[in-house]
Amino acid sequence: MENKVLVVLNLPELDETFDIMIPISRKIGNIIELISKFLNEETEGQYQIDVHKNLYNKETGQRYNNNQLVIETDIRNGTRLILI
């Protein structure tokens, strides 16, 4: 089983926040894709899948590199992220 972290994802375009589990052994670009599909299902299509968005740390404003593995970042349990 993959190791995962529980993060708080803020989605400004829908003014919503989600608690989601993300695998630490995947690249950020892949995580954005997984999150987009999840959000599309959770919002019953209100959120349109868009893999051209970026993931940011809400506290620091740092943008995560799409080719970086989650485990190589500062993303840990409780990290607050923004997808824009």
Characterization of the model:
The protein is an alpha+beta fold and 84 residues long. The protein has one domain (4-83): Ubiquitin-like (UB roll), CATH 3.10.20. Helix content is 18%, strand content 27%. The chain has one helix spanning 28-42, and strands at 4-11, 16-23, 55-57, 80-83. The protein has a four-stranded mixed beta sheet with strand order 2-1-4-3, covered by helices on one side.
Compact description:
It contains one helix and four strands.
Quick tags:
four-stranded mixed sheet, globular, 18% helix, Ubiquitin-like (UB roll), alpha+beta, 84 residues, 4 strands
Helix-strand topology string: EEHEE
Q: State the end-to-end distance.
A: 29 Å
Assembly state here? single chain
Q: Any idea how many domains?
A: 1
Radius of gyration: 12 Å
Strand content: 25-35%
- Are there runs of 5+ residues with pLDDT below 50, and where? none
Secondary-structure blueprint:
Blueprint: E1 4-11, E2 16-23, H1 28-42, E3 55-57, E4 80-83
Parallel strand pairs: 1-4
Antiparallel strand pairs: 1-2, 3-4
